[in-house]
Specification:
Layout: H1 3-23, H2 38-61
Length: 70
């Protein structure tokens, strides 16, 4: 895959995670994971995924020192 396709995949993934966050019902407790309420652990998981996608996006958009684009 080329960089533009990977960048598009990264952006689509970020939007899907953000839409998932909007669907988390406030105050929902079950199912619990290690004693943590559902709304909390899914929010934490989504933030970890968004952080990973942000890192991936910066790696895709970074330029090499040997890159000669003008």
């Amino acid at each position: 895959m080329n960089k533009s396709t990977l960048w598009l995949l990264c952006r689509i993934s970020a939007v899907l995670v953000l839409l998932f966050i909007l669907l988390i019902p406030a105050g929902k407790v079950t199912p619990m994971l290690a004693g943590t309420p559902y709304a909390l652990w899914t929010g934490l998981l989504a933030s970890v995924i968004l952080t990973a996608l942000t890192w991936w996006g910066t790696q895709l958009q970074s330029t090499d020192k040997n890159d000669t684009k003008s």
